[in-house]
Structures are given as C-alpha cells and as structure tokens.
Amino acid sequence: MALTGLDIYKLLPKTNCKDCGFATCLAFAMALAQKKASLDKCPHVSAQAKEALESASQPPIKLVTIGSGENKLEMGNETVMYRHEQKFYHPAGIGILIDDTLTEAELADRVAKINALSFERVGQKIAPDLLCIRNSSHDKNQFSRVVRQVASSSQMNLALYSNDAAAITEAIKACTGRRPLIIGAEAGRLDAFVKLAKENNAPLAVSCANLEEAAQLTDRIKKSGVEEIVINLGREGLARHIQDFTFARRTALKKSFRPLGYPIMAFTGTDGADLELAEAITYVMKYTSLIMVKCVEKDFMLPLLVARQDIYADPQKPVQVEPKIYEVGKVTKDSPVAVTTNFSITYFTVAGEIEASKVPTYIVCCDSEGMSVLTAWAAEKFTAEKIADTLKKSGIETMVAHKRVIIPGYVSVLSGKLEEVSGWKVSVGPREASGIPVFLRNWK
Q1: Which of 175, 74, 189 is closest to 133 using CA atoms?
Q2: CATH 3.40.50.11600 fits 325-441, yes or no
Q3: What integer pLDDT is reported at residue 1 of this predicted model?
Q4: Cα 78 to Cα 60: distance, rounded to the nearest angstrom
Q5: Residues of the chain with CATH 3.40.50.11600
Q6: Check: CATH 3.40.640.10 for 64-311?
C-alpha cells in the first residue's frame, strides 16, 4: 500500500534542516509520496525509517538496462501517466527481429540494412536500439551460429529469444560483455531461465498470458534474486495489449503495486509495413518500453523513430540548438549573415532553405531559450538589444567584410531599433522560410 505524505513525514527526523534541498521535512515527504524525490536525499533518516519507507522511495517502475557502455538501453523508471505532467524519461526501445532460419547471406544482408538505419533530425541522432535473435529453428547450434554472426557484425544491443534455456546458455557465450536481454521464461521453465539470468547478470523477460500471471511470476523471479525484469505479455490483439499496458502502468504508478512495476515489451503482430508501423507507433504512445518490429526498410523506420522522438521530448523544454554561428556552405568574408532563434525546428528549416539556395551564408543563432521567432519576440527573448548583443559577442564582425544582417520577415518591426543599437545595416528577409532561396540569390 502506498504511503501518504503525512505517513512519510511521521518517519522523518522533522528537523527542517534543509539538507535534502527542501524547505521543510513535510515538503520533502510530499515529494517522496509523489515519487519526485529519493530517500537518500535525507542524510539524517534512521535505519528503521529507511526500511519502512522503502516502498515510497523506490521508483514505481523498475529501471532495467540492456547492454553496456554508451549504447546501453535503459527502460522504465517512469513516474507519470501523461507526459505533460512532467515528462517521460527513457524512450521506448526499438528492437528488430531476426530469425535464426535465415541463410548466412540473408542474415548478412539483413544486419547490414539494420546497421544503416541511422538518421539525424533536429540535431539529434535517431536509430533503432536492439537486435532480437529468435530461435525459430529450435536448433541450439543454429541459434548459436546466428547469434555469433550478429554479435560480430553489429554493435547494437542484443536480445536472445528462445523457449529452450539450453539454447540460450550456448548462445550467450557469444555475447560476452554485451549484457543481452533473455526472452522466453515461462511459468513451466522459469527456474532454468532465472538461473541463467543470475549467472550472466542479464535482464530477464518473462512471458505471461495475462497480467495476473505476470504479477505472480515477477514476484517469484524477484524473490529468486533477479531484479531486472521485463514483462512480455502474450495476448493477441492491439486493443487488448493497450488495455493491459495502460492498466499495468496505472497500477504501478497510482497503487504502487510492485509486481507490475516493470517495463513492458511487445512484438508487432500485423502483416504489411503500413499496419505494422501503425501498431508500433501505438505501442510507443501507450506505455510499451520495448517494441520488437519485423520491417527494416528506411521508410518504415524513420517515421517510427520520429514518433518516438516527439513523444519522449520534454514538453516543458523546447528542442534547441546551441546558440552560436553556423556556416552553411563554403562561406567567405562577403557571405551574407542571417540571424534566427535557437529553436531546433526553426534553425534546421532555415538552414535547409539556405543550403537549397546554393548561397554560402552565416547563420547567427540567438539564445531564445528554444522559442520560435514570433514566440521569442512576443516573450522579449528575441529583441533588437538581444540580437545586437549576440552579433557583438559571437565574433561575426571579424568574420565578414561588411556589416549587413538579415532578420526574419516576421520581426521586421525590429529593423530600425536594431540598426540603432548595433550599427549594422539591416535587411528584412522573407516571412516564410520557403522564400529564402530567392531572397539570398538577389542579396548584394
């Protein structure tokens, strides 16, 4: 049962020492109850209180890590049902299914395609996270061979999927240091998979028919000594999955029900790239921590990754680029100078149109706290004084042989004041980015 703020407060020292970063012990207790603080922030709490407060201080959804190093995939540890309440912290992992029935040539071709699935959008690199090798052949030697080939040809995180613990025992030898996810544990074979996960310090995905069975099995696995668990629900149908995933998330967050407080994974079940894409995006939106897909085409993967990027962006903090000078093309001292805000979408839209114009140009990005041009102007984050200060501190004056600057057409009202405070001659650019190529070609 979840403890209330007052329940937690009764167990705290009540000294209001502020060492935890909160003004009072009551404020800290309320933050603990809402899962917005951890108990280790209080250096004075007693051992007895720590034990009593364990359930309140732990994250409602367990953090599970697949892989190691910079490319590791972290799932879970979420604290809210809706992203506007705070944000979602760990983006859903995108895994790609590989069957061990593929020939060596087919396997090499599939892995090469997957390795090429990397894109850049609004200054961020987006790519799938994991390769899931499935033991469809039911041959442990074949399974080991395929796992070995995949592990040697890709640095992506790995998942090993088999109902035979002996097959995974052999295959995992090819994954030294990779910390793969083990998938396939069922009620009847649970002990063998738990032992395997403990011996290899690997996360374990438990296969369940429903949430009731999931709660029983996760509790049993945790008591056996495996902490990092992923729930793999086997029910058919998108509607049933979304209902179960939402119920599990709500139960873990609102009721602090620990047996369902684990990341959930799903395999897409629809045929055809269009339907599979719709299913996968739905899972991204509705609480799935790891989605396994079959299609490896770029026109399938890009929209899926973009959807994930948008869902897991901080809704209270716009995506922004570093405020500095950017060079588009082979600029010279005679190249035009354009200013804009550091909102990522604004910058990349402007940069793309400048590149299309074939006119090498300097872009000076002002720090607008990630706001677009009109929004920043209305909030007084993109004013004549701020633009003048950016032009002066950026060093652009030493990079060009002129003092002419282009401002966005939507803030033409700033031109007079900007000339006065900066000493630069101001040209008013087009209101829409699509007009930039023609404008720059006529710029003198």
Answers
A1: 175
A2: yes
A3: 46
A4: 7
A5: 325-441
A6: no
